[in-house]
């Protein structure tokens, strides 16, 4: 079964942060594939943002590399635009407006 293409901004931001995190550690799709127990093309699709990252997959990567899932997610101090954070960090207050 093929996964549906990712179209949400949040999924793309998570994939972008994962690419940056992997680059800082000199990791490749094949490294992530081994950790997740999936094929290299499936891992590369996640890294490219073609398939959304699940929290379970992020947790597996974080556990394997000894970091927090939060280290794998975009942060306010990154190069994202303010409008990106309205999508990612929408609070109940924002939704009421």
Give me the secondary-structure topology.
Blueprint: H1 9-24, H2 29-36, H3 40-48, H4 55-65, H5 82-88, H6 92-96
Helix pairs in contact: 2-3
Could you give a quick summary of the protein structure above?
The protein is mostly helical and 97 residues long.
Report on the structure:
This protein is mostly helical. It contains 6 helices and no strands. Helix 2 packs across helix 3 (40-48). The longest helix is centred in the N-terminal third of the chain and has 16 residues, at 9-24. It is globular, with a radius of gyration of 14 Å.
Profile the largest sheet.
none
Spatial gap, N to C terminus: 40 Å
- Rg to the nearest angstrom? 14 Å
Q: Percent range for helical residues?
A: 55-70%
- Low-pLDDT segments, ≥5 res: 92-97
Mean pLDDT figure: 81
Q: How does the overall form come out from the CA principal axes?
A: globular
Main attributes of the structure:
disordered C terminus, single chain, globular, 6 helices, mainly alpha
């Amino acid at each position: 079964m093929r996964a549906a293409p990712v179209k949400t901004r949040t999924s793309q931001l998570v994939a972008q942060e994962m690419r940056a995190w992997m680059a800082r550690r000199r990791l490749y799709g094949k490294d992530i594939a081994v950790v997740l127990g999936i094929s290299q093309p499936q891992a590369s699709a996640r890294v490219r943002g073609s398939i959304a990252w699940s929290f379970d997959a992020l947790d597996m990567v974080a556990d394997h590399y000894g970091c927090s899932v939060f280290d794998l997610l975009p942060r306010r101090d990154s190069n994202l635009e303010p409008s990106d954070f309205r999508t990612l960090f929408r609070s109940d207050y924002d939704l009421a407006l």
